[in-house]
């Protein structure tokens, strides 16, 4: 009962839902409510009855009810689904409606706009109409004006026409006159022609006769020519025979000669054999000769060398003899001692002699120096001697003077002693006579006198001593004098001896100087030699060598070379690696450090013309290739241009290629550029003509040459001829 | 070798063998002492009463054997004048040291077949002293700072035909060198002077 009402209610709700959107949720709600109320009702019933039967019944009821409830629920869900589908469809319908409505509105607006536009156009058209009317009026006016001008022109033309017609009539008259003249001439010429024809007939008959004659003559001529040919052939044959005969004669001569030669041939053969034997022998000899020549050359060389040696030898002999002589001299020179046995001894002896000589020379030098010193001494001594002599003379004079003086003094002394004696006697007499005082006086006086005498005595003694001294001096100087004289004599003897050996001494001096110089030189040279030897030694130590006699070899694949090769390879490998790593770095930098398949990319990059060098190389290659290409293209263009030009000139057709396998031919004489022919080359190489505007006008030619003869060149030439003839006509 | 050299007499062939052997050991010693090849590639060998070091590097051995066998031929012909071990820097390609073995050949031995009188013991003693000097020369030679390689130059007669594997070379002088002469030994047929020239250290 509730179910029925529920269905109805639902229907009503649905209707209500369809009609108004506002009460959408309420029916749903109601439905739920009804369900809930249903459940509560069930619970209430279960609580009220507690017996088993009733429980079972109730359970059954419950179950049935549950089944119903489930059925109802399923219905409800179905209905819900339907509801939702209906809702969606309703929505769709609504949206459609709204859309339609919008469209309608849009259309209406557009139409309104259109109406406005149309109005504007209408106005514009009306304006234009006005303008056109005005223009029309103006045009009418102009037309009238023009009409008037044209009428005037027409009048002018009419006048001209009349004038021209008059001229024409005159011309016609003239033409008529000419025509009559010409007709007369024609008649005359026809008559002449007739006469000529008659003549022609005559001449024709004559000609026939002549022809016959000529044919006869020709036949004659042919015969003659045949004869001539035959004659020529015969002559040739004759000549040949003559030649043969002459050759035969020659041959005969030759044969005779040959026969004679044949007779001599055997001899010749024999000779030949002999000669061949001889030849072989000679060949051997020649070889021998060659050998001998070589030997000879070597011997010559040897001879030269030996001659040189001989000359050297003779020189050496001479030297030897010289040396022998010298040796003898030397040996003889040393007769006093035992004969010199060997040069060593000799040299030893010489060395000894030289030494002794040197010693002697040294002694001599000493002697000389002593001599010079002696001479100087001698001179001094001589001077001294002279001095001493003069002194001696002076001393002698002095001594004489002294002696005289002494004599005088003795005489005086004697006188004085006499006087003294006299005085003593006087004094004695006085003493005897005089007193003591006087005696004292006299004694003092005597004493004084005695003292004086003593002084005199002393003086005498002194004088005597002096005399003795001077005498001694004199004797000494005399002795010295004698000594000096002796020495002078000695020295004089020595100087004599010096004079004798002066030449030798000079020589010796010179030699000594020379020896000294040479010794110095020798020392210098020895020093140089030592230096040079040291240098040579050093150079040798450094590994120097004489390139004229020595060369330096080494094993080609020595360790140094191997190491260097390895090194270069290593460097190369490192450079490659470096390059790769650089690229790697570059890739890493470019991609910010996140790269997959880095090594693969690096390889790719290396494979690519990555390095600048490669790029440059490629560029240069490209450039060169481009240049080549351009040049080729230019040359090709030039030649093709020339070729096309020549073709155009020769064939009369310009050939263009509008698209592949199609050829457009335009004639040199074509009347318009649209007059061209089209040909197509098929894949099999056949050429077909395509229809063009121009080709349709050449039906005759096509039939004639293409259809019948299947010859395109003939067709083309016929077209050319046709066009040429047309052009010439138009020019004429 | 022992077959050709009897106790107290030396033939040309024996002399050649002795000198070639000396070259072999001398070059090996130089290469070891101057550190041209790493020391671990050398092995010890008893010779001339000394413990010498000989290379085990196969490539080097092959090279030395090839060169020495050729030199033997030239020693036998007496066309060799000098053998030079040139030590070069790989980096600068500059010659730093030259070990020069001057060979004086007694050419009368070519015509005379009579063996010379000299005991093998005496010769090996002389050679031993030369090699000892080579070993000792490390004390005065400047240190080879950069990596070096060596080359063997052979001074021969001008008119000698050059074998295929060989080529002519320059003498490879040292620009500014100091020289030291080492001992000499002789087999009475070949006399070998040893000397070393090295670049003066600035």
| Biggest β-sheet strands, sense, barrel of chain A | 4 strands, antiparallel
User: Whole-number radius of gyration of chain A?
Assistant: 89 Å
Portion in helices of chain B: 25-40%
| Average pLDDT number of chain B | 86
Number of strands of chain B: 10
Tally of strands of chain A: 5
Count of all domains of chain B: 1
Instruction: For the record, give the distance between the C-alpha atoms at the N and C termini of chain A, rounded to a whole number.
Output: 124 Å
Cα separation of the termini of chain B: 46 Å
* Name of the CATH homologous superfamily of chain B: HORMA domain
Question: Which stretches of chain A are poorly predicted, pLDDT < 50 over at least 5 residues?
Answer: 22-27, 31-37
**Helix fraction of chain A by DSSP (H/I, runs of at least 4):** over 70%
Report the mean per-residue pLDDT of chain A as an integer: 83
Shape designation of chain B: globular
Write the layout of secondary structure elements.
The complex is a heterodimer of chains A (732) and B (202).
Chain A: H1 2-19, H2 25-48, H3 52-333, H4 343-433, H5 436-500, H6 502-542, E1 550-555, H7 559-591, H8 598-607, H9 612-651, E2 653-656, E3 662-667, E4 676-681, E5 687-690, H10 699-709, H11 712-731
Helix pairs in contact in A: 1-2, 2-3, 4-5, 7-8, 10-11
Chain B: E1 9-10, H1 12-33, E2 42-47, E3 50-55, H2 58-77, E4 80-89, E5 95-105, H3 108-111, E6 116-117, H4 120-136, E7 148-157, E8 166-168, E9 177-186, E10 190-199
Antiparallel strand pairs in B: 1-6, 2-3, 4-5, 4-7, 5-10, 9-10
